[in-house]
């Protein structure tokens, strides 16, 4: 998708499963809890608490999925959904306290890709977000393999030579993105945009440090190459 608005950060979403997600929820404790769970699942997550903030953020960053509470202050969730659908840059998972069939039909008629009533199980939320994200990406094998290295993106488990690797969520996300890039060199800027969220400082050595730890944990022979002026690749 192409957005002509100035200043918007666009990404190539055809490579990799690392996901950038915006959570729009006015209940601050619930929003924080959802963000924690999604980050543990390897997603980069930003959070806003009203519709105006959501539209402003989406004008600057192209999110893979927007988790949108329908009943939010400011601009109503219905109008936020209509705007995002019209822009066609992000997919929408709508949340609501009402779980009636009529409400679900109305939510989907607004153009939302999926609809989840509250309360919900976090495991189902993660599964639905991943399912929505896959719709705009080419099919990838359920287990990513490179030589004796394998990664299960769903279970967030990586092994090499049959041995489990003790990787942090960010290290898993970086490894997943590099594997699904299929040998393409991935710049530090791209990794920062795809794997980290707005809290990441773009002027730090965060990516370099994470890749260094990942290399160490993957062991020998080395799998991650540094490409001069190009970034990293497996």
UniProtKB/TrEMBL annotation:
Domain OmpR/PhoB-type per the UniProt entry, residue ranges: 141-234
Keywords: DNA-binding, Phosphoprotein
GO CC field: cytosol; protein-DNA complex
In-chain residues carrying the UniProt-annotated modification 4-aspartylphosphate: 69
One MF annotation (Gene Ontology) recorded for this entry: transcription cis-regulatory region binding
Top-level taxon of origin: Bacteria
Any GO BP annotation: regulation of DNA-templated transcription
DNA-binding region (UniProt annotation): 141-234
InterPro entries per the UniProt record, alphabetical: CheY-like_superfamily, OmpR/PhoB-type_DNA-bd, Sig_transdc_resp-reg_receiver, WalR-like, WH-like_DNA-bd_sf
Response regulatory domain boundaries: 20-133
Residue ranges of coiled coil: none
Protein name: DNA-binding response regulator
Source organism per UniProt: Streptomyces inusitatus
């Amino acid at each position: 998708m192409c957005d002509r608005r100035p200043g918007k950060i666009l990404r190539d979403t055809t490579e990799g499963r690392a996901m950038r997600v915006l959570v729009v929820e006015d209940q601050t404790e619930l929003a924080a809890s959802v963000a924690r769970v999604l980050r543990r699942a390897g997603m980069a997550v930003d959070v806003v608490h009203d519709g105006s903030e959501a539209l402003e953020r989406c004008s600057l960053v192209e999110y893979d999925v927007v988790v949108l509470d329908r009943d939010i202050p400011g601009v109503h969730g219905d109008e936020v959904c209509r705007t995002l659908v019209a822009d066609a840059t992000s997919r929408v998972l709508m949340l609501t306290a009402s779980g009636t069939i009529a409400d679900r039909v109305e939510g989907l008629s607004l153009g939302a890709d999926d609809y989840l009533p509250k309360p919900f199980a976090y495991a189902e939320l993660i599964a639905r977000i991943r399912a929505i994200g896959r719709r705009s990406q080419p099919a990838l094998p359920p287990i990513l393999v490179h030589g004796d290295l394998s990664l299960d993106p769903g279970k967030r488990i990586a092994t090499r030579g049959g041995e489990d690797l003790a990787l942090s969520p960010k290290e898993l996300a970086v490894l997943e993105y590099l594997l699904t890039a299929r040998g393409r060199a991935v710049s530090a800027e791209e990794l920062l945009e795809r794997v980290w969220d707005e809290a990441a400082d773009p002027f730090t050595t965060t990516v370099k440090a994470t890749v260094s730890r990942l290399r160490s944990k993957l062991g020998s022979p080395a799998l991650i190459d540094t490409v001069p002026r190009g970034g990293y690749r497996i």
